[in-house]
Design a protein that fits this description.
The protein is of the alpha+beta class and 354 residues long. Strand 3 and strand 4 form a beta hairpin. The chain is 57% helix and 10% strand.
Length: 354
């Protein structure tokens, strides 16, 4: 379920971003691996970290169980120190797994959160610079019926209007695709609620009881749109003049959509890994099932002995337990058991009876 959820989440975000603003989506998409890689590692550790710890504890528990169940043998062979050292070594492995998991979780979480910021910064930088260039490309000096509109120097914010040819100490206001969208959207806003309202500027525009669009010299949005389209610079290719092709709201939508896509694809990483593991395990099981044994236990072909006497004999057996390879419990041991004979092997723990 998580696999399909992640894929659907990622594909949905990818499609939305490419529809609303393909260029910004492409720039943001280039940074998505910075999110997918640490997020996938984080999900893997969160899902498998407890299993790693359990396996490490199982190793330590195995040594303890072996020593406790064969305590007499351990004492007889003086292996207490050996098992204690093995147990401590296994516990150090548990501590290493715990520290490693905590480090990976912290590091990958930080990288994943940082990746979100990198994705947003990349998209916003590209979108803002492109929008700024488009605003400059679409700009023209705004003059309507002899009224010259003025702005503050440096930020092109409307500050008033004058029937004179000079705006000094202000500068001429330049209309662009971004300002045109704002005036068209907020056309009915009272003029007094804008920087153009109040004082001498309001009187020059026709009085205080005007809307923003009326203050900009037009009675209707249609007339305003026709004016900006007709006055747009020849090199600016935008059929409706506004909104800008690289609209700020579309940039943000594309960035958020691509961030969702990266998060979705990162969710699908661990389940996909489980599918790969399951596929490999299934292949091993199927190979065992389909294997043809070299010896057919049901076959009656071949030579068979005419009689079995049942005698057992071992000669010169040399044996040491793996946990104490230097201590030989059998050194040249020989035994012969005749057919039908019952033999009991007696001796202390660790003497090699098994």
């Amino acid at each position: 379920f998580v696999l399909f959820e992640g894929v659907g989440y990622g594909v949905g975000g990818l499609v939305v971003g490419l529809i609303y603003q393909p260029a910004v989506a492409g720039i943001t998409l280039a940074t998505v691996p910075l999110l997918i890689l640490p997020a996938s590692a984080l999900m893997y550790v969160l899902q498998n970290g407890s299993k790693m710890v359990s396996r490490a504890y199982a190793t330590a528990g195995g040594y303890a169980t072996e020593a406790l169940f064969a305590m007499r043998t351990v004492v007889a062979l003086e292996l207490e120190g050996h098992f204690a050292a093995k147990y401590e070594e296994a516990l150090r492995a548990v501590r290493w797994v715990e520290v490693r998991n905590a480090t990976v979780v912290g590091t990958t979480t930080g990288l994943a959160l940082s990746a979100y910021l990198v994705m947003m910064v990349a998209g916003i930088l590209y979108g803002s610079f492109t929008l700024s260039n488009e605003m400059e490309e679409s700009a023209f000096e705004y003059v309507v019926d002899g009224i010259r509109y003025c702005a503050y120097d440096g930020d092109n914010t409307p500050a008033g209007a004058t029937p004179n040819t000079s705006c000094a100490p202000l500068v001429p206001f330049e209309m662009n695709c971004n300002w045109a969208e704002l005036f068209g959207t907020a056309a009915s806003t009272p003029l007094d609620a804008t920087p153009l309202g109040g004082g001498e500027s309001s009187a020059q525009l026709g009085g205080p009881n005007l809307t923003l669009l009326e203050g900009m010299g037009f009675e209707s949005v249609g007339a305003f749109n026709a004016y900006v389209v007709a006055s747009s610079p020849p090199g600016y290719d935008n059929d409706g003049y506004h909104p800008c092709r690289m609209a700020a709201k579309l940039v943000l939508i594309a960035i958020l959509a691509m961030m969702m896509a990266g998060e979705g694809f990162s969710l699908s990483g661990p389940p996909a890994q489980l599918l790969v593991v399951a596929k490999q395990a299934a292949a091993d099981v199927l190979s065992i099932i389909s294997r043809v044994p070299a010896i057919d236990s049901f076959s009656e072909a071949g030579q068979t002995p005419e009689a079995v006497a049942g005698e057992i004999e071992v000669r010169d057996v040399v044996f040491a337990y793996p946990t104490a390879p230097d201590h030989l419990v059998c050194n040249g041991y020989s035994l012969s058991v005749s057919a039908g004979q019952t033999v009991a092997l007696c001796g202390p723990s660790g003497s090699g009876k098994s």
